[in-house]
Every structure is written in C-alpha cells, then in structure tokens.
Amino acid sequence: MLTNEKRSHFRFLAIYLSSTLLLFFLATFIFYNFQRHHIIDLQNTALTEEAAKISQSLRELSTNFSSTLVYPHNPPFYSAIYNLDKEYIFGSFQAKKVLWEKEYYQQDEKLFYIHDIYPYYLGASYLVLSKEINKKPIHELVKTSLVFLILAIVLFTLLGLFLGKLFIAPMKESIETMNRFIEDTTHEFNTPISTILTNIELIETLYDCEGKKELTRIENASKTLSRLYEDLSYLKLNHNYQRDVQSVDITSLLKSRIENFKTLIEAKELDLTLKIEPNIFLDIDKNDAIRMLDNLFSNAIKYNRKKGQLRVTLNNTKLSIYDTGVGIRKEDIKLIHTRFKRANNSEGGFGIGLDIVGQIVTHYNFSFDIDSTYNQHTKVTITW
Asked: 27 and 118 in contact (C-beta within 8 Å)?
C-alpha cells in the first residue's frame, strides 16, 4: 500500500472509529447508569418491604403488652425508631446523621430509607432503615459493559478495515492504472532515447559538420528524457531494486555528474562555485548516488534564474547545493517530498525528483533538509 493510500486509510479509520466508538461509549455509559439506578431501586424496594414488616411488628407489640418486648431485627437490614422530635429511641443501629428531608438516600456505601409511622406505636414516629449496598450485581453490570465495549471495538475495527479498503479502492485503482501507464510509457521511451544519444555521439565523433549547437540542444533534451526514464523506472521498481552497496568515491562521482550537466549550466549562464573536498567516500549503491545527485542538480538548474548562482559544497559530513532560483514557499516545503507535488509550475517536470531523493535518503538513514526563501534562494543539504 502506497503512502497516500495508507494516509487516506488511516484518516478514514480515525474518523470512522472515533465517531462510532464515541457513540458506543455514550450508549454504554447511559445503559450502565440506567441499569445501576434500576439495581439500586430494587434494593430500595427491599428496604420499603422490610419497613412494612417492621411497622407491622411494632403494631403487634403495641397491642400485646403481656408478651416480652423484642425489637424486630432481620439482617442484613438495620433499623431504628425515632420520636416525633426526630430523637433516637431504640434500634439495631444509630445513624451518624439522618437526612430527614429525603426519603431514600446513600451514605458511606449504604442505602437509607425513612418511613413515617402512623399512628404512633410505642412513641415512635419515624422508622429509619439501612443496609449495605449489594455490589455484586453492579460488578456484574460493569463486566457486561466492558465485554460489550471490547466486542464492539473489535467488531467495528474489523468492519472499519473492510470499509476502508472499499473507500480507497477507487483511488488504488487509479494509482495502479497510472503506474501501468508509466511503466508502458517508460518502456517505449527507452529504445528511441538510446538510439538518439548513440547517433549524436557518432555524428560528433565521425563528422565535422555545422549545427553543433543544435546537436547539443538535441543531446541535452535526450539526456533529460533519459533521466526521466530512469527516474520513472526507479519509482516502479524501487521495492525490488537490488542495491550493491560499496564504498563510493563521492568526490569523483560528484565532479563527473557536474560535468554531465555542464551544457545545461552553460545554457543558463549560471555562476558555478565548487567547494569539494578530496577523497570523500560513502557507503552507498552507485546508481542511487547518481540518481540522487542528478535530481538535485536538475532541480537546482531548472528552477534557477538565468545568470544565477549555483554553489556546490561537499565535505566529510554533508553535501549542499545552493541556487538563487525561484525558491519555495514555507507552506510548500513540508509537501515538496510528496510524489507528483510541484511547488512551482513555471517549469516543466513531474514532481518526482525530490520524492526519489527522499526515498534514497530514508533508505540510507541520511538526513534531508531544505532551506528556502521564496523568490530568492534554495539550499538543499544531505547529511550523513
């Protein structure tokens, strides 16, 4: 899956899963609170029923003085009777603080219920009942809710992956179609370009004829097409490209690539300044090094001004190429590595050069930095 496909897939999944799971979290939260209140209501109902039983027992005690007075106590319920002034009379417990304004309330993990006694039995006006909250059904509810959430996350993640593939399918098909077109086009490029370059070399070698400038222009154009062919082939075959990493003399290679661009530099009348240290070696595949250098030089020349400056610096730690060209806007610098992205449309190109450089730099764990001021200059630095 390409970077753009992964980015689109990730964005779709992020939006889909965040919105869907947020709704499920809210639904689960509402369900949990509703069920918890229902559980508490059932336990409050048990308090109400127990209060009715105790009231009946108190009524029987008030009408039967001959029997021994035994206060009714049925664990796990605790109760106490209060007089009309809300003063404690007797009971199996004594609450720290009774909230008389409420009928049902919770305090210290306990449920409380205040029951009015009428008519008064044995001077008692109020009956206060209490019991520990039975947390077992609440714990079961928590487990059920968590299992439901986990299953929902797994289910909707799998569904999101499936829908995500359907979502990016049209884009993937378009990219594959474009890649096939590039592959077919580059294949057709190769033979005529090679033929043109070979025949130009033969003409320049065997014949002393007029039109040397015209032949030079044809040669430059053919080399440009040849580089484009190689770049497109690299993009297509990059994942299967067999690299031969060895110690490459970057100093010599850099000079030879500059010589290869000499006609383009002269055509634009650029002021070329070289600060190249000798005997700089780098562990890299030579073709990767050539492709990286060619794309950097091509951009520095293509987007430079006529009679502008081109400075090339090489030392043990870095390579930098500076040009006084059109520059890059700040908002475009972050996107300039993107394939087919061009920050400036005034010149030709497909926007693949810096993408290729970026892939090579990433493969060898180099760093890639672009310092640019729009309409003034651009400096590209590769550090290893």
From this structure: no
Domain residue extents for the chain: 3-134, 243-383
- Please give the model's pTM, rounded to 2 decimal places: 0.48
Question: How far apart (Å, rounded) are the C-alpha atoms in residues 360 and 260?
Answer: 21
pLDDT in tens, 267-284: 888 999 999 999 999 999
Q: Which CATH number fits domain 243-383: 3.30.565.10, 1.10.287.470, 1.10.150.120, 2.40.10.220?
A: 3.30.565.10
| Nearest-5° Cα angle at 214, 209 to 220 | 120
The C-alpha atoms of residue 89 and residue 81 are separated, in whole angstroms, by 6
Whose CA is closest to 36, among 97, 100, 106, 101? 106
Asked if residue 170 has pLDDT above 70, the reply is yes
Q: Counting Cβ atoms within 10 Å, is residue 192 exposed (0-12), middle (13-18) or buried (19+)?
A: exposed
For residues 176 and 179, give the distance between their C-alpha atoms in angstroms, rounded to a whole number: 5
Nearest-angstrom CA–CA distance, 149 and 157: 12
Q: Which amino acid is at 366?
A: F
> Cα separation of 353 and 71, whole Å?
94
For 146-169, give one letter per residue: b (16+ CB within 10 A) or e: eeebeebeeebeeebeeebeebbe
Query: For residue 381, which of 364, 362, 367, 363 has the smallest C-alpha distance?
Result: 367
The residue whose two tokens read 């048990």 is: 46
